[in-house]
Amino acid sequence: MSLPKDLTKKEPCLNEWAEIIGWRGSIAHGMYVPPEQEFGTDDKDIMVVCIPPVDYYCGLEEFGSRGTKEIMHNEWDIVIYEAQKFLRLLEKGNPNVLSLLWLPENMYLYKSGIGQYLIDNRDVFACKSVYHSFVGYAKAQLHKMERNACKGYMGEKRKRLVEKFGYDTKNASHLIRLLRMGMEFLVDGELHVEREDAKELLDIKMGKWTLSEVKAEAEELFKLAREAYVRSTLPVKTDHKKVNQICVDMVSMKLDYNKDTNDGTN
After folding, report:
1. CA–CA separation, 49 vs 65, rounded Å?
2. Separation of alpha carbons 88 and 66, rounded Å
């Protein structure tokens, strides 16, 4: 499966500016349900890290909205981050962006040498402070779980499923997954994006768990995540100087490459 050619041709952030293109969301987690199935409410989610030309660093050009651009195209939901913005989110322990650095190889659609450099340095972002991000995101899913806030490509279909089960089973699945992933990360510093518990998470997504069962599991996981945070041997927070150097290295490598290419030396 690849990105639509009509998008890649007109969006430089999906071709010559791109450093990493990878799956995110249900496909990355091994939990994608095709739209033709009853419970199929998933978009095809992609995340991209890009480094635009020098104008965006030394001039007045701005990338997207404060470093982020989103492209919605039928079932495709593509979020693109400029490298500086991406690294700031990594430093804050954002669960969604962290996942891009721990994908299985078959989940990357493209990696440049610069993209691989970032992945090779992913351990810089393995720290205890991710606890607050994962738990915060999980609490947000818990809050939305009983609310009808269905948006996007499959909004109406998802709304019908909420009415059927009395709660948003997709949010419930996200809730449990986030807590488990965060707990695992605190224990071993590895983000297990492709889920070994995908079948159980799909059962939740398909309404096979009652709301009370989901809440009971979440309550236990919040407690276990807190215990994992206390016991974790990971550094307390990221080393800002190291993150800054990674950013400098990435942008410098890209600008040097562009200069050599324009000079005709490559």
Report:
1. 15
2. 12
Q: What is the pLDDT of residues 191-244, one digit of tens each?
A: 999 999 999 999 999 999 999 999 999 999 999 999 999 999 999 999 999 999
**Residues of the chain above pLDDT 90, percent:** 74
- In degrees and rounded to multiples of 5, residue 235 shows phi and psi of -55, 150
* Residues 115, 49 share a domain: yes
The vertex-192 CA angle with 228 and 50, nearest 5°, equals: 115
* Total domains, the chain: 2
How far is it, in rounded angstroms, from Cα 111 to Cα 29? 19
Find the helix packing angle between 240-263 and 83-91, rounded to 10°.
160
Q: If we measure between CA atoms, which residue out of 24, 27, 23, 3 comes closest to residue 15?
A: 3
| Dihedral sign computed on CA atoms, order 23, 25, 30, 34 | negative
Q: Are residues 119 and 241 in the same domain?
A: yes
pTM of the model: 0.90
Which residues face 45 on adjacent strands?
77
Same domain flag for 226 and 248: no
Print the domain residue range for 192: 130-231
